[in-house]
# Entry
Amino acid sequence: MTEYIQVTTTTETKEDAKKIAHSIVGKRLAACVQVIGPITSVYWWKDKIEEAGEWLCVMKSRQSLYSGLEKAIREIHPYEVPEIISVPIAGGGKSYLEWLDKETGQGNI
# Structure
């Protein structure tokens, strides 16, 4: 299993995305959260196709923090069924990964 992960979630408003970003970084559950948008999402919801403008949060973290990260997102996310997806980071610059470790309380790699 890869030690580093990238977690994504989407929200309806920029304000909600920034609230999630500040909360997650403030709790050191991720070293960085990028807020991207607006984006357009097309998806199934309650038996019909929907289209909505959303904001994407991209979080860089560690696998060992995932449970706490997911819980923190769920506590403040306004959606009934929020997207919370984690993918492994297969590699990265040594200095970036050292920074990621430092900012999430891990120390040096």
Remarks:
- The longest helix spans residues 14-26.
